[in-house]
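Below is how a single chain appears once it has passed through the pipeline. First comes the sequence as given, then the structure the pipeline wrote out for it. We keep one example in the README because the format questions we get most often are answered faster by looking than by reading.
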Amino acid sequence: MEQKHDLTEGNIAKTVIWFSLPFLLANFIQALYGAVDLLVIGWCCPPEAIAAVSTGTQVTQIVTSMISGLTLGATVTVGKYAGQKQPEEIRRTIGTSLCLFAIVGLLLTGLLLLCSGVLLTVLQTPEESFALAKEYVCTCGAGVVFICGYNAVSAILRGYGDSRTPLLFVAAAGCLNVAGDLLLVRVLGFGVKGAALATVLSQGLSMAWALSYLNRRNFIFKFRLANLKMRREKVRELLFVGIPISLQECMVRLSFLYLTSVTNALGVSAAAAVGIASKYDVFAMLPANSAASALSPVVAQNYGAGKYRRMGQALVTAILAALPFSLAFFCWAQVSPESMIGLFSEDAAIISAGVPFFRTCSYDYLCVLFMFCLNGYLNGRGQTMFTMVSCCFGALALRMPLIRLACGKAPGNLGAIGAVAPAVSAFIALYTGIYIWRETRRDRIQGKT
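Resulting structure:
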C-alpha cells in the first residue's frame, strides 16, 4: 500500500476538505456509540438508567480521550516522517506505537476496574443510579485494550496520509454497536450492561478486522509479533508529542466530569438533561473536531516538508469548512431546544431542566470551532506543550472555578452553568490565535515558506 495522499502537494483547500470528510464520517459514527446507547436505554429503561449511562459515559470518555491524545502523537510523528519521505522511521514508529498502546490499554483496564466506585462517588452519582453506572463503567473498562488497538491503527493510517481506510473500521464497529444495542437491550433485556457490552464487542471485532485487513494489503508495516519492538528513542518521541495532547484532552474531560458531579447533585432530572446535552455537544462539535483532527496530519506533513505558508492556508480552510455545520446546530438549540431533548426523553421534568442549559451552552458550538482548529494546527507543528498548558489552564483555572461560582451565585440555574463553557472557549481561542499570529510572523521573518 503506497501512501494514499501526499498532503504536501496539490490544491490546499481540496486537500483539507477531502482529507477531512472521512474524519467527519468516522467521528459521526463513533459519536453514535454513546448516543445509540442512551437512545435505546431512554426508550426501554427508566430515568435512573438514563442518568447511569450518561454518568458512566463521562467516566469512559475521559479514558477514551486519554487514549485518543496518545494515539494522536503517533499520527503527528508518522506524518512528520511521511513528509520527510523516511519509510524506515515510519515502520519503527508504528512498531513502537502498537507495543506502547497495548501496555497503556492493560494499565487503564486495571485502573477502571479498581477505581470505578470511587470515581462515581466523586461524581456524586444519584443513589438510585449508582449500581447501574458502576456496571456500565466496569463492563466498558474490560474492553479498553480494544479501544487502544482500534485507535492506534486508525491514528497510524491517518498520519500516513490515509483517512479513508479507518472509516471502514469505524463503520463496521458502528453497525455492530447498533445491532448489539437492539439485541442486548431491547430484545434480551440486559439493560445498562447490554449497552456497554455492545460497545466493547463492536470495537473488539472491528480491531481484529482492521489488523487482518491491513495484513492482506501491501501496507508499509506488517502486523506481526516479530515486528512489534519497543525502541527507546521512539517511545520518547511518541510520549513527548502524545502526553501533552493526552493531558489536554483529559483536562477538557475533567471539566465536564466536574460539571456532571455538580448537576448530579441537583437530582435525576438535571443529571439526565445535562447528559443528553453532552450527546448533542459531541454531534454539534463534530465538524469542528473532525476539521481539527484532519488538520494535525496535514500540518505535520507540510511541517516535515518545510511548507509553512501551506500550513496557514490549511488552518483557514478547516475553519471555513466546519463553520456552517456549527451554525446549524447553534440555531437549532436557540430556536427549539425542546425538540432536541425530546428525541432522547419525553419526561417533562427533564425537558424543563434542559431548555435553559441548551440555550446557553450551545454558544460553545461556535467558540470551540476556533479553539479546536487552532489547537489542531499547533499539534501538527509539534507544539503540544502550548496546547497542553492552555487546556489545563482552561479546565483547572477557568471552567471548574466558574462552574462553582455559577452554582454558588445561582443555585440550580442550569442556564448560568451552561454559559461557562462558551465563555472559556472564546477566551482560549483568542489568546491561541494571537500566539499563532506571532509564530506565523516569525516564520516570515526567518524566510520560511
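The radius of gyration is 21 Å.

See the next section for the split statistics.
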